[in-house]
Specification:
Layout lengths: L8 H12 L5 H7 L5 H26 L4 H12 L5 H28 L8 H24 L2 H27 L1 H10 L3 H20 L20 E5 L11 H9 L4 E8 L5 E3 L11 H4 L13 H4 L6 H6 L10 H8 L6 H11 L2 E6 L7 H15 L6 E3 L5 H7 L4 E2 L15 E5 L5 H9 L3 E5 L4 H10 L3 E4 L2 H4 L11 H26 L1
Parallel strand pairs: 1-2, 1-9, 2-4, 4-5, 5-6, 7-8, 8-9
Antiparallel strand pairs: 2-3
């Protein structure tokens, strides 16, 4: 289908060797009369689709990094193995996208040089495996982590305008090899079909901004106040989670609320702990090996005080930031113990820091007693009740009667005809749209969304008008004085028109030049 080759023998050999796994010079190729067949074109199309498929997965991999610590915790609870699986994900994705990208670039260069696209069978097998691996990754994401599809949709509000520019740029660059293919191809039908598909794709891209929406497309004077920061178990990137050190580090990050989890020991002492087992965040396997798998509530307070709640943080390094800790911070982290709720309340009281907590486990047979004991500690601590944000739904009416000053936070959206108005909600960031956030803000309902770690996500929620966010990365979000980007609608409209016009002119130039 292609006319005789149009580049030097050395270039042809350098391109054909990695793509076709053959040392064939341009002269030999011409003598043998090898040409790009429809079969070869179908494999090029498959290569292009695999590249796009892998590119989309790379985008997803970057987006889900915001929530990947949850995945690491899930794997640990299932397999008792701690590893930063985000590194495995990124390395594997980088290998796949690099491989498909190199093959695609080679194919495009071969087309520009007029060389045949004879993809070697080894590459064909590897491309099929690449497609299967990525398909399996998407399938697993949909089955085990379906909420990340919502995260991807939210991310388009942050990246949509830039993805549009990138897509237009990439498709514009394809004009050169496409023009070469069209001018060299003898089949009129195929030439018309390819040209129509390309034109349809470009028209769709040129008009794509009509469907792109983002809360950050607004005037500067319309930007809502910066959301307050809620420390997720304190500052878990800087100190062992749910410890007094983590609480103090969160205060240094200008966090307004310390979010934690409370359990009650066998002898009635509320303490800070997220997991139902102690294995992830303590050395319980070394101190009490025969009881390591028991529920945290099965231990009395004396036993809990014997456990080291900080060394795991230095050994497992749950976040990359652990490596940059100072010697003093490392020493302090190694000395951490499980704090009681009373100790946390005392620290919060003196620093004017609010404390928000869940009471676990909710399905415990003695849960009502847990509520009463916890409430008793709060009342005895002397902390102003407006600094206490109560999350547990169980026996909430009893709490309202015994401590009417406590601020109640609901883990659900408001419903019609409620007996009492909902003033505070605490929800996953995937569960509220920008429109709902704006409506809640207009109705003076405080919205806290969790867990927000990446600046791009914080920027979108900031532009939407969210009241506060729960974060692991308070030290990062603290430094943000402005969303990553903010564009007036008129400016975005101008960028859109300029990008489309420049792209159109370059495509016309490419076809004229190649002719």
């Amino acid at each position: 289908m292609a006319d005789p080759p149009g580049c030097c023998s050395t270039c042809a050999t350098c391109l054909l060797c990695p793509y076709s796994c053959q040392w064939i010079t341009a002269k030999k190729e011409k003598r043998k009369g090898l040409r790009t067949t429809k079969y070869d074109c179908s494999w090029f199309l498959f290569l292009f689709c695999v590249f796009l498929f892998t590119l989309v997965w790379l985008y997803f991999a970057i987006i889900i990094l915001n929530d990947f610590h949850n995945f690491n915790e899930f794997i640990f609870r299932q397999k008792k193995l701690w590893l930063d699986w985000s590194l495995v994900l990124l390395i594997a994705t980088a290998v796949l996208i690099s491989y498909s990208s190199v093959l695609l670039v080679l194919a495009l260069c071969l087309q520009l040089c007029g060389q045949p696209l004879k993809l070697h069978w080894v590459h064909k097998v590897l491309l099929i495996l690449t497609a299967l691996v990525v398909a399996a990754a998407f399938t697993g994401l949909g089955i085990k982590w379906a909420e990340e599809w919502k995260s991807a949709w939210i991310s388009l509000q942050a990246t949509g305008p830039f993805l549009h520019i990138g897509a237009v740029g990439g498709m514009t660059l394809l004009a050169w090899p496409l023009a070469s293919f069209i001018y060299r191809t003898r089949s009129t039908g195929l030439r018309v079909f390819v040209l129509l598909v390309y034109c349809a794709a470009m028209i769709a891209l040129y008009l794509a901004p009509l469907g792109i929406t983002s809360p950050c497309i607004m005037e500067e004077n319309q930007l809502p106040p910066k959301p307050a920061l809620v420390g997720h178990r304190g500052a878990p990137m800087l100190a062992p989670e749910n410890t007094l050190m983590s609480l103090h580090k969160a205060m240094n990050c200008d966090v307004q609320v310390f979010e934690t989890d409370v359990m009650v020991s066998a002898d009635g002492v509320p303490f800070l702990m997220h997991d139902e087992e102690l294995t992830r965040t303590t050395n319980v396997q070394a101190v009490f090996p025969e009881r390591a798998t028991l529920n945290s509530t099965a231990f009395n307070w004396t036993d809990l005080q014997q456990l080291d709640a900080g060394s795991w943080f230095l050994e497992r390094r749950p976040f990359p930031t652990v490596q940059s800790l100072s010697p003093g911070d490392r020493q302090e982290a190694a000395e951490q113990r499980i704090p009681s709720l009373e100790q946390a309340l005392e620290a919060a009281k003196h620093s004017n820091l609010s404390i928000m907590f869940d009471l676990r486990p909710e399905n415990h047979s003695d849960y009502q007693n847990f509520v009463n004991v916890t409430l008793g500690v709060i009342l005895q601590s002397g902390i102003p009740l407006q600094q206490v944000l109560w999350l547990p739904d169980g026996f909430r009416e009893d709490v309202k009667q015994q401590a009417p000053g406590v601020q109640h936070v609901y883990g659900r959206k408001r419903v019609e005809n409620e007996k009492e108005p909902v003033l505070r909600v605490n929800l996953p960031y995937q569960d509220m749209s920008s429109e709902e956030i704006r409506q809640y803000r207009q109705d003076n309902i405080s919205v806290n969304l969790y867990v927000v770690n990446q600046p791009w996500l914080f920027s979108v929620l900031w532009c939407s008008g969210v009241s506060s966010v729960t974060t692991n990365a308070c030290q990062v979000l603290k430094e943000m004085e402005h969303p990553i980007w903010l564009l007036p609608r008129s400016t975005y409209f101008m960028i859109w028109i300029v990008v489309d016009c420049v792209s159109f002119l370059i495509i016309i130039w490419a076809f004229v030049l190649m002719k």
